[in-house]
Design goal:
2 copies of one chain form a homodimer. Chain A is of the alpha/beta class. Helices cover 35% and strands 15% of the residues of chain A.
């Protein structure tokens, strides 16, 4: 069987070269006589793998030296709890609410202190990122929390809020490594790996040292303390070794293909093909506000739910999968992360045109 | 290069057939056109994988219907925190201390209530499991906590304590699926996958429903609440999809090779070869007490630290790896989990004999 175009919002497509290398090394990684899955995390072989992964990630994002890079578990969902547990020291934070993911973060953070929603995209169905220039941040906020790319609605911050001296924490799960960013603007960036980076089960955290130097209000159990992971190079306990290895292969793939500048160029080109078509279609309508569009998750719908269903049914003959919108908003969604080739986007638009012509 | 005998305490060897299947399916799982790593966890394809994994595990362990099976993240280290957070309702627990892993669990549990060490193996260097018949459990204990197999010292419970009506929680990380057990004796069993079951990054929890029906003393964030995972079939958030798939392949491998009765027979045979030799050797000395020996982790040492080092150096010519004891106790250790073939044990003993003859 041939490989298909998979428009899943995550877990999502991975580069074919990465999967091929993983397959070829499954029985024996570099003459070690074992799979990476079988390696002791305390072995020199594995230490080299995680060290290279970190070094390559630092190169890709140009991460300053005063940031720690951690490879953890539990996804964004566990981070929603760990961040307030670790970094709420006065007990008050500011959050920009842009959808389901920030709402979940808010719910967990409220267990540990006061959460002030300083801007809210909910009144207009999260189709836009709230106006950033008009936000008044509270000076006593332990941190400002945001989610950069909102998979469900297909929105993305067009720029970053000016938080002054406040610590800005960014959930970048679904846009991580899709373009260059200035890490120094953030006190912490984190991302679940299962969109642009690797398999589900790895959470990458990039945390500035002054944030780690804070003393939590309550003593934390070992796994939930970012400091313990930082002091032990993500090896306090057994890390998700195989997942980190795949992430490392993806980092090498990105470096070998022009790094994040080139990725941004390709991602913009891919998204433009879809958005240009959507902006002129008579039956497909984009969902997210034009000024806040995601390059990763393109949300749209047809003229009716019935037509959406017909579109999904017709997509099967081209073996396009996972084009259904998130259950909370309905409609259609094409997630076109780093590993989605431009041919996949072109093929999708060709099908959309064919579908449109048949329905005019 | 050829595959080697890897005596790592975990992550550890996996069955060759499992790795071969994983490699062969890496580009396309069952005609889906994608790797399991790329599958949406909300897809029918993936649902089938996790459903089969659970069904096969239930078959292997004969898990009663009033137990939930969860596939989570964070390893035993996160469970050390989650268990008291979820199940300490009156705030007092009893723990049998058998080494580093129960000590870590005790440390985290103390953040949430009173921990009474009702039996302690520390005075004799954790070489024995404390006498179980003489333990007086406290009737007000929310649960009794134990660790079944202690990788570092090579000890294993020879039988289970009689806790009456109390809830017994068992960390089986390093002996899970090595032999049949009566699940109904426990309120909860859990295990990190990276010993007998799969790659690091999957924690399997088997929890009785009455335990899940308890109300935590404090509201819990979503990821740390076992109930939320149980209500959502381990899919509240994105689970470690690829790791669960590999666990599922291992379950099928176990079922195809006689299940846990046969595994017990083979594991006993493998361990006997090593222990019989150790019991008669003039230079190799077993570490764990004879009555409490682990079938999974065989701990021993030579006459001196220098000789231990020489033994490890000499092991390289046979490509035996990870025979060094845990840094907290030193010496030597051969971990011989399910996937270690009997040939590996025989080859190791052949080398030990050769080494002994050269040093008599």
């Amino acid at each position: 069987m041939s490989r298909i175009f998979n428009f899943s919002a995550g877990p999502a497509m991975l580069p074919e070269e990465v999967l091929q290398q993983a397959a070829s090394e499954m029985m024996d990684k570099d003459g070690s006589g074992m799979s990476v899955m079988e390696m002791s995390h305390r072995s020199k072989f594995y230490q080299k793998i995680i060290d290279e992964a970190e070094a390559d990630l630092r190169k890709l994002l140009n991460i300053p030296e005063n940031y720690k890079v951690l490879f953890l578990q539990g996804g964004a969902t566990l981070a929603f709890a760990m961040i307030p547990m670790n970094f709420m020291v006065n007990g008050k934070i500011d959050v920009i609410n842009t959808g389901v993911w920030t709402k979940k973060a808010i719910k967990d953070a409220k267990l540990y202190g006061e959460v002030r929603v300083v801007a809210d995209g909910e009144p207009n169905g999260f189709k836009t990122i709230p106006d950033l220039d008009s936000i008044k941040f509270n000076k006593d906020a332990d941190y400002v929390y945001m989610c950069d790319n909102n998979t469900i609605y297909g929105t993305k911050y067009p720029k970053y809020p000016n938080v002054g001296d406040l610590a800005l924490i960014n959930d970048m799960s679904s846009c991580f490594l899709s373009e260059p960013i200035d890490v120094s603007k953030f006190a912490m960036i984190y991302a679940g790996a299962q969109k642009n980076v690797g398999p589900a089960g790895v959470t990458i955290c990039i945390i500035r040292e002054d944030l780690l130097a804070r003393t939590p209000r309550n003593p934390l159990p070992a796994y939930l303390d970012y400091r313990i992971h930082a002091e032990n190079g993500s090896m306090y306990n057994t890390p998700p070794t195989y997942g980190i290895y795949i992430c490392g292969l993806v980092f090498k793939w990105l470096l070998a293909h022009g790094g994040l500048e080139e990725r941004k160029r390709v991602n913009e080109e891919k998204a433009k093909i879809l958005y240009d078509y959507l902006d002129h279609s008579k039956i497909f309508k984009p969902y997210a506000d034009k000024a806040n569009r995601s390059l990763m998750n393109v949300t749209f719908r047809t003229l009716s739910e019935e037509m959406d269903a017909e579109f999904l049914e017709g997509a099967k003959k081209y073996r396009f999968t996972n084009l259904k919108g998130h259950r909370s908003v309905g409609g259609l969604r094409a997630s076109i992360y780093n590993a989605m080739p431009i041919e996949g986007v072109k093929a999708l638009v060709a099908y959309m045109k064919e579908f449109e012509e048949a329905h005019l």
